[in-house]
Amino acid sequence: MSPAPMIHLSRLSRRAAAILSAMAAIVMLVVAVLSLPSAALAVDSEAGKLQSNNGVALAEDGDSGSDATNVPTAGPVPNIIITNFTYDGDSVAAGSSFNLAFTFQNMGQVAVSNMVVTVDGGESFAIAGGSNTFYVDALWAGYFMTQTVPMQAVASAQSGAQPVTVSFRYEYVDAGVRSSNQSDIKISVPISQPDRFEVSDPVLPDESTGGAYAGQETTITLEYVNKGKGDVSNVEATMEGEGFDATQKTQYVGNVASGATGSIGYAFTPQAAGDLNATLKITYEDSDGQSKTKEFPIALSVMDMPVTPDNGGMVDPNLDPNANNQTVPWWTWLLAVVALAVIVLIVVLVVRRRKKKAKASDIDEEWDDWSAGDANTGAPSAAGGAGAGATDGVTGTVGTGAAQASTSGAHATAADTESIPPVAAPTAARHA
Description:
The protein has helices at residues 3-35, 330-376, 378-383, 385-391, 393-410, 414-431, and strands spanning 41-44, 49-52, 80-86, 92-93, 97-106, 112-120, 125-127, 133-139, 144-153, 160-174, 177-192, 197-199, 212-213, 218-226, 232-241, 244-245, 250-256, 261-270, 274-285, 291-303.
């Protein structure tokens, strides 16, 4: 081969190598320029100088017309935010445990490192196990991470949304300078207290308390107590059914504080006698604002109003209809019998005494009359006594015996016996 072609090929290879080297240098320069951060420059109007955001003056002399030189400056501070969190349901019951899972993301343009995450549950939440502090080695720009913390709601916590604070402390390097930052983020977790609003069974009017009468207002009573730690509100009572009238269809009770007790009285008037069936509903809102209802079936026997002629067919509502049927104690009957016997005995004794007094009085009256009659007839009897005694001695003797017998039967005294002979002769003569 001749020397001329060889020289020509050698020149071509040197040219290709030079072109390739130049292209490689250009590519490296472009890469280097692109890797540099963009500089924010400001113009100083007085000095005509360009300054960067970090305060370094670089600038051009207005007269010389030379170009400004770009220098790297620090970018925005990277922020960590929580993008999502969960707590095992719609709400957390007071005293129960749950898992709090939250996702945090680096919203800056540079990576962060040496991150410390702290969870603070305040007065409403406590860490169920382990520590409330976690360490993250690094989190690149735009990246996110999820952390789960076991927690427990305090039994005495108030109902409603309660705060949880998550703190992030971290470092980052920007423009060759290492800096630190901290951000505190609050999230809310709703706590629900158990519904412990209790209502007892309704107390119905029965026959022992007067019963329920057609056309007469009666009342059904219910006792309630709020055993929960939260208040209940808008308590109302409503009775649904037919066969009765009520002045207020819905009776408003109001709010019931924690630990409070009371009673609900629903007044109504039965329309007619017979069986009355209805439903008594108690509605309220619990501490979480949820509306709840308690229902109680009512079965009541309604009686006709008793009619009495004394008051025009009306009956006293306060009168006990079973007052006449009440049982009398046995000792009452015993006392009554003893009292009756004593009264009878007293009456018998009084009657007998009065009879004795009356009999004695009659005898005294007869004696007084007889004595008065003898006194009036004593003189004539004495005048004619001698003749009669001489004429008929037998008769005078018989008369005297009769008078003595009569006198001894009435009064057996010696004085009376001595006065009989002179009186007996005329008395016997009169009878003859």
